Amino acid sequence: MIRVPLAGLLAVGLCAAAVRPVAARSAEEVQTLVERAAQHIRDVGRQQAFADFNRPDGGFVDGELYVFCTDAAGQVLAQGDNPKMVGKSFANVRDAAGNSPSAELFRVVQPTGKGWLEYLWPNAAAGRVQHKVAYVVRIDEKTVCGSGYYKADRP
After folding, report:
1. Strand order across the beta sheet in which 143-150 lies
2. What is the domain-level CATH number for residue 92?
3. Pairing mode, strands 65-66 and 128-140
4. Is the dihedral of CA 61, 133, 32, 104 positive or negative?
5. Given 24, 38, 52, 88, which is the most exposed site by the fewest CB atoms within 10 A?
6. What is the pLDDT of residues 82-96, one digit of tens each?
7. pLDDT of 51
């Protein structure tokens, strides 16, 4: 298995993402965005919804909050903060703790179709890896969508 180091992903994210002001976000904001995204998929279909999620003006990108969708194989289907990631596989990407966030997304939604996950992820706006808390929902057996916020650094 090929493992993609988080440092490489951080470099890609830092180079590709626009610099945005860092603002603390809440779990409620994230959950609301994800539930609205899931409804949007039901309303307009996957193809149009994913296109909307990828557009900065599509109604699903708000500062550091954006919608992402992935399939069971780890392929990115939508990535609001960096549409260039669509089609790439995150299956072998490990966070700084050695966990596979891509695989964990599907594990979290198994019992109820939705859930919360915390992992280490590059924060392009802050320029470092931080704890990210994501809310994810199962769209179908092969697709999950979510969003997340970065936890404030502890002093």
Report:
1. 76-79, 68-71, 143-150, 128-140, 114-123
2. 3.30.450.20
3. unpaired
4. positive
5. 24
6. 999 999 999 999 998
7. 98
